[in-house]
Each structure stands twice: as C-alpha cells, then as structure tokens.
Amino acid sequence: MARHRRSTQLVAVIAALATFSLSACGSDTADPGVAESVTVTPDWSSLTKIGWTPAENSLPSFACTDGSYAKAVKDGINLGIYSAAPYEYIDSKTNEPAGLDWEINMAVLAYIGVTDIKTTTLQWDGMIPALTSSRIDVITGNIHETPDRLKNIAFTAPAWWYGSALLIPEDNPGNIKSWEDLKRKDVKVGVVNGSQSQAYVKTLGSEVIAYQDANAEFASLVAGREDVVVDDSPKAAEYIMQHPDSGLTILKTEDVPPNELLANYARYGLRKSDCTLNAAYSRALSELRAHGVITTILKNYGLTDNFFQPPYGP
Fold first, then answer.
1. Cis-peptide into 32, omega within 30 deg
2. Of 10, 145, 258, 291, which is most buried by a Cβ count within 10 Å?
3. What pLDDT does residue 121 have?
4. Residue 17: phi, psi to the nearest 5?
C-alpha cells in the first residue's frame, strides 16, 4: 500500500472552483452505516418518454447519514489502482501513479477536501472483491455500471464516456470484418478477465481467451494467439501509439458495437454503505465536468470532450 500527495498544480486548479463544505451529510457524529429507513419507489416513466430509463437498482440512497465521507476527510482514503494506460499506470520517471482516471480522482479528492491518500495496486478482476471486503475504499479505474455489478457495489455519477473497439493484426488472418464476426465459432477473442467485454463475449459462440491486463492481451494478439481483441477504444489507441511497430490496428466496421459495450458511462465504484462519500464524489464529478476540469484532463491525453453517450449527445 502506497501513500501519495497531490501536485500543487492540480490543487491550484481545483482551488478555482467554488468552496465546498467539509461537513458530512447529516451529523459528523453519526455511526458508519446508520441511515434513516426510507422506502423509495421512483417513477421513471417521464424520463423514459424523453429518452432515458435508469438502470434497475442504480438509484443511490439520498437519505443517508453514514460517516464514510467524514472518515475519509479525517482518516484518509485507500484507492484501488491498476495498470491500464491511458487510464492508470505507474509513471516510469516518477514511479508514481499517473493516467487520466488517476488525475480525475485526484481532482475529486482535492475538491472534497481529502488529503491523506493511500493506494493498493490490484488486477482488474480483484477490484470488486477488494472493495466489498474493505481492502480499498474506491475503484479509481473507471468501471461501467452493469446489472451484475449493481448487485454488489454502488457507482458514482458519470465522469466521461467512451466506447469499445475491435483490435486486429493489420493482415487480419481471422478475416474479422464486423462485430457480428465475434459470434463465429472459429474465432479466438482476447479480453481482460473481469471486464465488461469478457461478460459480453462469453454469451456468444467464439473461443474466449482471458488475460490479467490489457498489455498481456495486446501482446498476445501481436504474437498471433488470437484473431481479435475486444477492449476500450482509448486503451487500444494508446497501445498502438506506444507500440507503432506492433502491426495492430483498430478495425473500422460498418456496424456499431452492441449496446452492452456502447451505452455506458465511465464511473468509479464505492461500497453501497458509503453513501455520503459517494454523494461527495458524485457532486465533485458534476462540478469538475461543468467547469472544464475533466475536459482539460481528457485533452491532455489526446481525447476529445467525451461527455455524452451517442444516444444522449446534443
């Protein structure tokens, strides 16, 4: 477990935002996990009529008085990190965490006044178990909201958006031409273990090969062990830029990715019981989006202002 402090430059940027109260929701003396009992039956029919139906079980508790935010301010926070450029990685020059999701989380913590920051490095498939067992307090590598994950953890408000991509060798020995080709039984598909891509591809008919991280799956594709890799478009683009002689390319298809891999926002994961910490995190994300901080971070990593899923863009 490592301890980190934010850069003074980042703190200066966040200081330009409106002052945020450091008092937790409800009483500072409330016992962790104690909340008023309220049964909520939301009516989302009006939202459906104008184009959006929230995911089942995705509504967080708003009647919470737990001590998770106050505890993070007073005692610090432990962040779960992993290696997946450009999201998160260890900078070889500084030996410190870096990446766009790392910077967004640092901006969030600066805004909400959490200064004592520790990290625990994990494989991606170990993130949710580490969170639910309290080894970490936040999954800082962006994580998509899915029905299965909603059974176990809570999610922050959206941070940004991206879609999935098909990465293939330039000579395309598997003759992959579309997302539909993932259903062919003769196709070998590489994915990261525990990823949304793995969950989707396992429902098809192709042979699935799972790896511990993106670098391993991309290197395996270079070595010819599979025909195609399904992963996030930013990660695929970053690998190609960092390895220009890899012989890999992102496939341009006429069909679009399936909804399971397209229609979802990048968020961060917290325990369901940590309601006030989630509220603080989500408020910070909304302010950082509105004031251009997340836009600046994305642009620093060569990404456009990816705020909207395609169905909801202006």
1. no
2. 145
3. 97
4. -75, 170
Other CB atoms within a 10 A radius of the CB of residue 41 amount to 4
- 13's tokens: 């940027």
The verdict on 15 and 127 lying in the same domain is: yes
Element (H, E) at 13: helix 8-15
Residue in 10, 7, 4 with CA at minimum distance from that of residue 107: 10
Between strands 265-270 and 160-161, the pairing is: antiparallel
| Alpha-carbon torsion (103, 108, 111, 117), positive or negative | negative
Which of 209, 237, 256 is the last residue before a domain boundary?
A: 256
DSSP assigned state of 302: T
Reduced to 3 states (helix: H, G, I; strand: E, B; else coil), residue 184 is coil
Domain co-membership, 79 together with 182: no
Say how far residue 295 (Cα) sits from the centre of its chain.
16
Q: Domain range spanning residue 124?
A: 2-161+266-312
The CATH number of residue 41's host domain is: 3.40.190.10
Residue 261 lies in a domain: no
pLDDT of residue 29: 44
